[in-house]
Specification:
Helix content: 40-55%
Shape: globular
Number of helices: 17
Radius of gyration: 22 Å
Structural class: alpha/beta
Largest sheet: 6 strands, mixed
Distance between the termini: 36 Å
Number of strands: 14
Length: 380
């Protein structure tokens, strides 16, 4: 099925080269094959191409023709040394490159040439509400996740098992990121159980039976392979002293559910609320990367008040799976409002109709997501 992705690569590549990062199976290869069918492409997953370029990177320049204004290299992290040749061709031949990868880790280590600002970085996330349109189903998204091949799979549980087993464990080890697969596997399950919570390295170290320093290194692997993201704490509060510890979210609700070893979530179950919050994080993170590059944080005071998301330092957002919002669901937003002057304070929930309570907006989740992608979230 053809899905029109929101990320605008064409506009970026009209001006300069671009790194395109994203976890495996988010659709990077499909997207570039669809958008740039006539461009010369080197897929480094092809062993023949990989071996030829690893033996002689200059072949990239030797094979360049007058019509090659844009060249694509897929999975660039597999051959970082090729970036020296890319740099030379950008400077001497005026060629633009699209360089895709699922990990920036190898590109950051060992003095690898990152093109000195000659290429911008863009990120491709799993599918969003905006991209799926009428094909979007919330329970399906929470349980199967939003990786294209799994969301549309006839057996998503089996595909999630393969993704978690073959990629998140073995392939991470094969890339040389870690060699202790059993320890990394234990860590993954413990880290998944802490999804959406404050990072407590010592507790995770005890539960996963690995050293605290190893836990920190493993979290670094998840960040670099874009499997998870830190959500920093918003520190602009004055009256109520905020925490400084980040939260950590996995990139996809289906993947994290599988790693937690949970059965499919049902609406109204205790797990439904956590899964819904992870989904909302995904939509906000994707919107931030695709549309505005707006900062995304959360707020929690040392006295225990909390708001799930602060978008662009202007909009406070609380996520609740309830169908009937009450005063207790609004406590965090009210506490933050006493200390800040944000444009909006929004409770995103499963009520059927939007309403206003003491200057706070209670908004059905679907209406909120439509307003977010439609550019109407900044207005009352």
């Amino acid at each position: 099925m053809y899905i029109d992705r929101t990320l605008d690569l064409r506009t970026t590549l009209e001006k300069r080269s671009c790194f395109l990062f994203g976890p495996r199976q988010t659709g990077k290869t499909w997207l570039i094959n669809h958008l740039f069918q006539d461009c010369k492409t080197y897929n480094l997953l092809d062993s023949d191409i990989y071996l030829a370029l690893s033996r002689s990177p200059r072949r990239l320049r030797e094979e360049h023709g007058p019509g090659d204004q844009l060249i694509i290299i897929d999975e660039i992290q597999k051959l970082p040394s090729l970036l020296d040749e890319v740099h030379l061709m950008i400077e001497s031949l005026g060629v633009r490159f699209l360089l895709t990868g699922s990990s920036a880790r190898k590109l950051r280590r060992g003095g690898v040439n990152l093109l000195g600002g000659r290429a911008r970085s863009r990120f491709l996330h799993p599918l969003t509400f905006n991209e799926l349109g009428d094909e979007f189903d919330l329970l399906r998204a929470l349980n199967s996740g939003l990786l294209p091949s799994i969301y549309f799979s006839d057996d998503p549980e089996d595909d999630l098992r393969a993704y978690a087993g073959d990629y998140l464990k073995e392939e991470v080890a094969a890339e040389g990121l870690t060699r202790n697969v059993p320890a990394f596997s234990r860590f993954l399950q413990v880290a998944a159980s802490c999804n959406g919570q404050l990072i407590n390295y010592s507790k995770i170290s005890n539960d996963a039976q690995v050293a605290r320093s190893t836990v920190q290194e493993y979290f670094g692997i998840l960040r670099d392979t874009l499997i998870g993201y830190d959500l920093p704490c918003w520190k602009g509060s004055v009256k109520r002293k905020p925490l400084s510890t980040a939260k950590f979210y996995f990139f996809d609700p289906g993947v994290v559910r599988f790693l937690q070893n949970r059965s499919p979530v049902r609406e109204g179950s205790p797990e439904f609320g956590d899964a819904f919050e992870t989904y909302l994080f995904h939509e906000l993170r994707s919107w931030s990367d695709y549309r505005r590059a707006a900062p995304l944080t959360y707020w929690r005071s040392k006295s225990g008040y909390e708001v799930d998301f602060i978008l662009d330092d202007r909009i406070a957002i609380e996520a609740k799976a309830t169908q009937t919002a009450s005063a207790r669901h609004l406590k965090g937003l009210k506490a933050l409002r006493e200390d800040s002057t944000f444009q909006r304070y929004i409770l995103v929930c499963h009520e059927q109709r939007r309403r206003e309570v003491d200057g706070l907006t209670i908004m059905p989740w679907r209406e909120f997501i439509e307003a977010l992608w439609g550019g109407a979230i900044d207005v009352g």
